[in-house]
Each structure stands twice: as C-alpha cells, then as structure tokens.
Amino acid sequence: MTHYLIEYRFQGKVKSEIKQMIFDLDKKFHLGFAKSKKIPHISFAGPLSTNDETRLIKDFTSLCKNTPFCSFKVDGFGFFERTKVVYINIVPSEKLENFRWALSQKIMKYCTLRDFDYKKDFEFHATLAMKLDDRDFFAIKKYIEYQNSPQFKHFLIRATIIKNSRILCEYDFLQRRMLTREEALSRGQLAKTMKLLNDFFEGNFDPDEKMKSPSFKPNHKKPETKKSGIIEKIKKIVKKVLR
User: What is the CATH number of the domain that holds 85?
Assistant: First the structure.
C-alpha cells in the first residue's frame, strides 16, 4: 500500500545541527540510527493513505498558496513516555497551527489518517530517537538533562509531500509555487529560496506579497468628446471622397 507523509524538512545549518544531535545520541547509546538517511523534520500529517493522489496534491497546493509565511520556535527537548520517543520540542505560531489543522480537516474526507491527525490539539515535534527500550529511553532522558537546550526561532520555508519515503512534491513559501521532486532536490532552487529568505530578514522582500489582492485599477479611458466625434465624421467623409 502507498503511504504518504506531509512534513517540514529542516534546511541549511539547522538541519546539520539536528543531524549531529541524532548522530551523537546514536554513538553514545548504540541506537543504530546514524546510518539512516532520513532528514530531520516536523510531521504535519501521516503516515496516511488515499486512493486519490491527484486530489491530495491539489488540496495541499491550494492550502499552501493561501497560507501566510509561518514561524515556529525550537524550545528544548521533550519525551513521549508511552511510545518511548525523544524529540525536539516545537512551539508553533498561530498561523502554523491553523495550517496544520486546516490541512487535516481538508484531507480527512478522503484520506485515512493516524488518530492524532484528527485532533486539533497536536504535539509539534522533531524526532531525535524512537522505538527505544526502557533502559535506553531513561538513560537518554537523564543524559539530555545536562545538554545545551536548543532555543531559536525558525520559519516554515517549505512543506513537502512524501510518497513511500521519496519526495513527491514540495511547496516553497518564499518562491510561492509548487516544486517538482527534481526542483525540491535542486541546490540551485534551494539557493534561490535562501536568497529570498535573506532578503526577507533584511526587510527587502515580503513572502506574502503574491497573496495580497491587487489594488483596484479603474479604467481611465476618457469618454469620447463632441470634438473627437466631429473628427471621426470628417475622416469618414474624406475616405468616401478618396474612393
């Protein structure tokens, strides 16, 4: 069966830092995750299944196009006690919360989701280690108490649909368009996105500009005056004479 995920995949320096955290935990506790090629991410929905991939992409694209540029905060570490998961805690902005919930509401009509995807209250997180036994879980919890807690603000640069562990498509909130798999993996396209992000930080670019309704431009065509009407009559007479 085909499985999909909808997620945010960290980019740049933050991506490298989180991967290093995963590697350090793996090395110290021999978890076996270091060889994984998974990109640090925040899940928004899934794993999910559907028989209508076309509608999924269409609804996802429409929602992204109408979602303003979102931010979130990375705020230390967290743990899921029942499932033995260690993660980085994510504090979403109201815009990001609205995006995640609107996405779930839109696709739940024709997708089979996980139980937590049907709920408005959602635990935003980026997994560091999972499927741990009790010994490793409690040992990592104790170890993390003495580590520097990550604290910073970040932005939802892109949102991705994953199909069977491969990028299907990816929406870019700075370029304001959907990227193909090839474009999503392109270093050139990423450089373009990062350039726009830098322009945003410097106050020279508004990622939401294309979302705003264009200002009304009235038709300034001047009505025909009596003088112009007389001129047109003269032209018609001249044409008849020259025939």
Answer: 3.90.1140.10
What size, in residues, is the chain?
Answer: 243
Q: Which domain holds residue 152?
A: 4-211
Radius of gyration of the CA atoms of the chain, in A? 26
Average predicted confidence (pLDDT) for the chain: 87
From residue 104, give the alpha-carbon distance in Å to each of 107, 165, 170, 204, 241: 5, 20, 17, 33, 74
pLDDT in tens, 199-243: 999 999 999 998 875 543 434 344 344 444 555 554 454 344 344
Contact between residue 33 and residue 104 where contact means Cβ atoms under 8 Å apart? no
What is the number of other CB atoms lying within 10 angstroms of the CB of residue 211? 13
Domain tally, the chain: 1
Q: Which two tokens stand for residue 21?
A: 């955290």
pLDDT higher than 70, residue 119: yes
Let me know if residue 231 belongs to a domain.
no
Asked if 204 and 197 touch (Cβ cutoff 8 Å), the reply is no
- Are 3 and 48 within 8 A, CB to CB? yes
Q: Is pLDDT larger for residue 92 or for residue 36? A: 92
What would the pLDDT profile of 147-157 be if each residue is shown by its tens digit? 889 999 999 99
Is 221 part of any domain?
no
Instruction: Look at strands 166-172 and 177-180 and give their pairing.
Output: antiparallel
Residue listed under structure tokens 């032209």: 235
191 contacts 12 by C-beta, under 8 angstroms: no
Q: What pLDDT is attached to residue 96?
A: 97
Residue 78 belongs to some domain of the structure: yes
Q: What share of the chain is helix, strand, coil (3-state, %, to 5)?
A: 40, 25, 35
